[in-house]
């Protein structure tokens, strides 16, 4: 499976210009993405660096190590996109227009096979981004979770090099990967070497394989043998024919590449019977400038979703100044009430732009002050929320949110 990934990344035939691959690993070696990255680069005789272990120092680690290959998780690319977009929005209409023109201009060149890093758009916007990662990047890999098309387009433009999305799990390593000539955004390419893929029906969500959409199932020598001392869970995950049921919903595109569109697992069933995938909704809401972190919650006793939100303090200060509030880090009752509605409205707009159905939209929110981190056990090493831990920590708050919404 790792050989298949190396082939798709064209890392097996590096020339003198690219040099030996260098990668900075910031994930635990117990995590398949981190472990696989170290094994792959070591196999090629490359160099592997390890971060300091502090999220706030990660950008410094990238800049100092100067990697040639970036192994990225979507959370980091989302943060980079939001930061650049926010800085350009501060410049008003001109900044927003330049941002869109830069991405369109770069993508037009890349689709023609031109990865030049000396365009006017590089001088205005993108050179600064590449320098913050050491200025030597010639390959970018995104994996561990779906990446939105807009962030993918931005990332491909910003790094102006081979940018590839891969799909896999701990149980199967790498299942799909984009190829050198695949320039589509938001897709995870074709099966890698040794992998077979099929889609199976998910009738409870009205996904049917005949429509080229369903649960992704994988079969290959790279699929794991089973869970340690848990035969029941193993049989639930791997069927009698040896197919691994991933729990992810995929769609074959018109180009016969895979697009991850939903999640069978980690779903809430609402009281009227609809199933909703909170991670997809959170990804849409995370585009809001007001939000630093968001967690969507639902249960089968209620017909709507709620959410807890960690505010983006930098943008809140800007908003408060424009609205005439004296914001010093804490919200007054009046400001808090108004801000809550403003944030909810902005979340709803972002959700509509990304195709959320009405029942997928959150109906009420509450602000929290403590961020999700690895230290407090609410964040995974790939910067995704630990759903069970968050639900347990904020169990009483979710009850309170539902109760206040009904009063």
TrEMBL record:
The name of this protein is long-chain-fatty-acid--CoA ligase
Pfam families the record matches = AMP-binding
Any one GO CC term of this protein is: endoplasmic reticulum
Q: Does the keyword Lipid metabolism apply?
A: yes
Q: Which organism is it from?
A: Rotaria magnacalcarata
> What are the entry keywords?
Fatty acid metabolism, Ligase, Lipid metabolism
Which GO MF terms does the UniProt record name? long-chain fatty acid-CoA ligase activity
SUPFAM superfamilies in the record: Acetyl-CoA synthetase-like (SSF56801)
Q: Which PANTHER family match?
A: LONG-CHAIN-FATTY-ACID--COA LIGASE, LONG-CHAIN-FATTY-ACID--COA LIGASE 5
E.C. number: 6.2.1.3
Question: Where does the record place the AMP-dependent synthetase/ligase domain?
Answer: 21-228
């Amino acid at each position: 499976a790792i050989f298949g990934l190396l082939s798709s990344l064209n890392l097996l035939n590096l020339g003198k210009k690219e040099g030996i691959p260098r990668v900075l690993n910031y994930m635990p070696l117990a995590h398949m993405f981190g472990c696989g990255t170290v094994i792959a680069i070591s196999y090629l005789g490359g160099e592997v660096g390890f971060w300091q272990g502090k999220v706030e120092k990660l950008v410094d680690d990238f800049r100092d190590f100067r990697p040639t290959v970036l192994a990225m998780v979507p959370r980091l690319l989302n943060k980079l996109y939001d930061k650049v977009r926010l800085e350009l929005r501060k410049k008003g209409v001109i900044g927003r227009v330049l941002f869109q023109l830069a991405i369109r201009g770069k993508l037009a060149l890349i689709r023609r096979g031109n990865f030049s890093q000396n365009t006017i758009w590089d001088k205005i916007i993108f050179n600064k981004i590449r320098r913050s990662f050491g200025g030597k990047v010639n390959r970018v890999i995104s994996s561990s979770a779906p990446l939105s098309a807009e962030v993918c387009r931005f990332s491909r433009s910003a790094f102006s090099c081979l940018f590839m999305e891969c799909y896999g799990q701990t149980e199967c390593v790498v299942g799909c990967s984009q190829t050198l000539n695949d320039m589509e955004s938001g897709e995870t390419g074709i099966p890698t070497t040794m992998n077979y893929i099929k889609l199976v029906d998910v009738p409870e969500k009205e996904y049917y394989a005949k429509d080229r959409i369903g649960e992704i199932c994988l079969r290959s020598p790279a699929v794991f043998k089973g869970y340690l001392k848990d035969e029941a869970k193993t049989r639930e995950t791997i069927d009698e024919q040896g197919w691994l049921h991933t729990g992810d919903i995929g769609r074959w595109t018109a180009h016969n590449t895979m697009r991850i569109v939903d999640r069978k697992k980690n779903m809430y069933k609402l009281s009227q019977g609809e199933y909703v995938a909170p991670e997809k909704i959170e990804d849409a809401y995370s585009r809001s400038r007001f939000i630093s972190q968001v967690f969507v919650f639902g249960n089968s006793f209620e017909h709507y979703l709620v959410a807890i939100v960690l505010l983006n303090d930098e943008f809140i200060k800007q908003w408060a100044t424009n609205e005439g509030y004296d914001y010093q880090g804490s919200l007054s009752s009046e400001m808090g009430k108004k801000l809550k509605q403003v944030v909810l409205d902005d979340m709803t707009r972002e959700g509509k732009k990304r195709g959320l159905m009405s029942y997928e939209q959150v109906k009420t929110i509450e602000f929290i002050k403590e961020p999700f981190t690895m230290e407090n056990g609410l964040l995974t090493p790939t910067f995704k929320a630990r759903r069970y831990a968050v639900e347990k920590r904020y169990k009483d708050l979710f009850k309170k949110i539902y109760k206040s919404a009904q009063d």
